[in-house]
# Entry
Amino acid sequence: MQLIIDRLTKQYKNKIAVDRVSLTLSQGVHGLLGANGAGKTTLMRMMCGLLTPTGGSVAYNGIDVSREEYRDVLGYMPQHFGYYPNFTAHGFLCYLGSLKGLSKPFAKEKSEALLSQLNLTDVAKKKIKTFSGGMKQRLGIAQALLNNPKILILDEPTAGLDPKERVKFRSLIAKLGSDRIVLLSTHIVSDVEDIAHNVHLMKDGQIIAGGKVDKLLSQGQSLEQLYMEHFGDSEGENDYA
Amino acid sequence: MLTLMGYEWKKIFMQKRVIAVFAVIFILICIGQVGDLIQPLSPIPDAVQTMRNNREHARALTGRELDGDFLYEIFRETEGQNFWLSPYRNIWHIIRFMGEVESPEEAVAFYTNRDNRFAMLPEDEFLMNRVSEGGARWIMQKNEQLPAPWVFAYTGGFDIFLNRANTVAIFLFFVIAICIASLFAAEHQTGVAPIMLAAKYGKSKLIWAKIFTAAGISLGLSLLFTLSTLAISLLAFGADGGWAMLQLRIPFAVYSLTLSQAAWILIINVCLRAFYLGALVALFSALTRSAFVSLILATVYMAPATLYLSLPFNEIRWVFNLNRLIIDFIPHPTEHAVSTFSFFPYEIFGLFIPPFIFEPIFSLVVGAGLLCCAGWVFKRAQVG
Amino acid sequence: MRDLCTLMGYEWKKLLLRKGNVIVLVISLALVCFVQFSLLLPGFTPHENMWEQMREVRAYERARAGNEITALHEYHANFAETLAFQLERGRVSQRGGDWVTQQHEAVPTPWIFYPTAGFGNFFSRSAFMTLVIFTAVAVSIAPLFPNEYRTGVAALQLASKYGKSKLVTAKLLTAATFGLMVALFLTLSALGTSLAVFGADGARAMLQLYEPLSIYNLTVVQGAVILFANIAARILFFSAGVVLLSAKLRSAFSTIIIAFVWIFMAGMIFIPVAIPWIFTFSRLVIAVTPDMVSPVRSTFSIVPYEIFGVFVPPFIFEGVFSLVGGIGLLCCAGWVFKRAQVG
# Structure
């Protein structure tokens, strides 16, 4: 089980959003850390086939990102999760289930199970437009897990979740990472520190540092310190006062 | 895929505004078919009774040949008569073309005068810009095949349907544009597009589901609108006269068709034009990613026809034909089905094809192409 | 007041910064100007040398400027027939008929001929011009309120100091002034183009030279000004209606659907009426839509409005009706936005 990103590049008119990124992701949870505008979302979108790379390739076990077989094993939760306001949570998951090739009965069963797992059973039949931000976020995670994906790409999945929900989410992801590839981007360093096996730091479209989390922490440095080392530019710029 | 199509239909018809517009326009269209009979809106005093009297009067004369005597009799009876009150409304174009006559001999000259118009076609520089010499001969041949004299019939229901078909079509096209404008655009606007396009069927079956949904909505709504209005017209005014010749309604048509055949041909034409328009709106929706802009573009496309605008250099044949296929495709509200049965054929590699055959085929082929383009655009959408 | 003007400035900026709006306005300007002389161009008319013919006709007419037209018996006959028709249909009461006859008799005779091709051409194209103005305004104004909700800025606005007071006034005044400015700009452009191409002669000519059945003692220039004023009043009413819809529906798409129904469909619903109050009602409906048949004929129609025994020419009544109605709708739109529930 390997997701190989080979010299992936995305160039807009006069800006290189992702610059020859090469990664090999295997089973486990991989964290992607970076400041705003580092290129994390662009990288993830190329990994989901939503953006055509200017150069490079993405393949899972030899299957290119453009193929249906790749999308069959993909689960994606975008940064700004979109939904149909007048659909119910259950209805929306069933709809996405059919998009993911699940049979109706299986999609229904899986939707109910996921809604239960994410504490959304009580609101399953309510319209999504009535949901709070956290509930919408959990629904977004639920839809990503519908097809039991081998590749799970989560773009800022904990945004909008309260601390209690974040803890639950972390244990869910840790469990999921045991038998699939999970790539998780976030600003919240502690999310990555607790659950990720590997972490990759991204800046200006490039992967500037990374490695096994255990190894990094055994060197006596916390992830936050590592983050500040690479993204805190100079003294005084870290204060608003 | 049927499941995905079901969801697409649900997404469109779940929108309250779509239901509201559809309901209002459908009701208006249906009422419009019998608007003449509704007091106090009707210009005809005691409209229903007047209609019944006229119908009985016309039915009693059904089957009579429109020879000189009968034509002169009609002329005398309708002289100074209000169009709305006349039992001969369905042949009003014949009466107008006949003009002022003072004897049955002058009246019967209607046929000769009409035939002369076709015979003089090769000498009419303006008209000959629109058709080749071969085409002019084809038109004259078609005209010669028509029986003479014509036979009068009461054709109330069919006449009303053909009269109003273009107006129904314009309203129908507007409803279709509203339904389909959000087909692709809504996915981008709601933010669901990234999730969709990353899903297994997001770039395959989903695209086909959307394409078939657009086709289904266009054809389904147009069948609903046209069949309903035909049914209402026939029920309200009578289903007589389907066997009568098309020329009673459109004197300058050269096709040997009955009114019921013409009605069905018109229905097919409207349905396929609707399909073409639906495909165009779907393409706008995929390209612009905005239902708002798609609807504006669709309305701008439909506007020239309602304003009787046409392409410049319309006297050049290929421009004339292009105009028929692009601009006149949206029917003029007051043309009363004339363009569908226009005597100008399309000339394709030496073959002369009547518009009511060529145009539906064109709509189907181009519409299918446009739908595939729309699907392709959505599939290749760059999200980010 | 300064704050209000500042807020209005920002609203105007938002309108004009939208590329789509600029494109629509540019295309509208090009269309209304082009259509003034398109029929003189080869390809747009089956006749040849239209430009030359136009010049010849203009020279011929100029040579005859100032001549009296005395053979008016057909004019009087047409007037009598038209009045009889309206009376028969019950659209004018007997007293109204007398009033109309009085107006008709007050039109000075004999008529004096002047070439009026420039103004006449402008009048002939006014239906299309009105349609373009309405469409441009609808497309530009429909997103006025919905964009605030769509971008999420509405919450910030409504929570701010002026969010429920001056801001609302600024938006409404912007919508109204934008519509009026577009109407003014396009009308002046159209008129200017027509006068430049066909000649600016005949400003003093009587309106009857263009519209023989008019019963009002007006010159062609006065007619053009009144026509513009009517269009402006209609646009004000229309802009207010669109803004109300956009505030209520919070969706530019839904708003534009209704706006297009208003623009295009209202004129296609033909109500051949036999009952006076329905006829009056249908006239008022048309008075706030782009008249796609003949704005000049309906603006200067011989059928007056009868209000409590007073006879008011349509160009006065409809203008006032549109103005008052427009202000009312603007107030409603403001009230709807102020009371919007965001959440």
The two ends of chain A are 49 Å apart (CA to CA).
